[in-house]
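Weekly puzzle thread! Below is a chain. First person to post its structure in token form gets bragging rights.
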Amino acid sequence: MKKSKWLGIPIPLIALLLVLTMVGGGVLGAFLFNQSIPSNIVILGGDVQAFSDVACTVPLTTLTFDPIRAGQTSPEKTFWVKNTGEDPVFCALAQSTLTVGLTLSNNGLTVPADPARLKLRTGTTDTATTSALTSAIDASITTIAFSNSQTNFAAGDIAKIGDELILLNNVTAGGTTDSVRGYAGSVAAPHAVGAPISKATVSYSLAPGAVLPVALKLAAGASVVRGAQAWQTVVEARDTPY
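Winning reply:
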């Protein structure tokens, strides 16, 4: 059978070349290329500054993610935010490009970044209680049975089991029937009968002179359209809570 040609080139070969060209010129998600993703560090409001070292001696204005291939997660990039003023401040991370798949690690808790704003935690403190789980729970259940519930907790408190924080929307005689698992960026996980429960307080206030580490990475499947366009990592700061 005679093969169709155009200018002496087989038509199937032309079609294949066109497909490869379209793939190579598309989004970060193309299967053939690695990309470097530059990011500008922008500070909005408040007496805070970003630094590239923990001693806070080298100011940071840009953050570039190493070349990554589509479907892969980038290496983690860490920088430090310091309160250079005389009053406490509250900080949040924001993105100007919502098509970026970004995760943030802050004080040991790794979470997907909120597309609009993510409050930066400055720490978590625990208060020991005499409460313990009276029934095992998986990572999704929101009705939780535990001892001494109304003695040690009230609605709106945060319970900590292992490394997981749980917001208690109500407290009953036997535990809670309405809770938010994996609260404040922690990871919901199964817990066994008898697991001890403490009361946790999450702090967002950055004291004068205090330094806050922030680690960022582009998640697998991150999409920055049309190649390596610069985007902004915005650190917001203000003197009142978000």
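Puzzle host: Confirmed. Bonus trivia for everyone else. Confidence is low (pLDDT under 50) at residues 16-32, 96-100, 106-115, 223-229.
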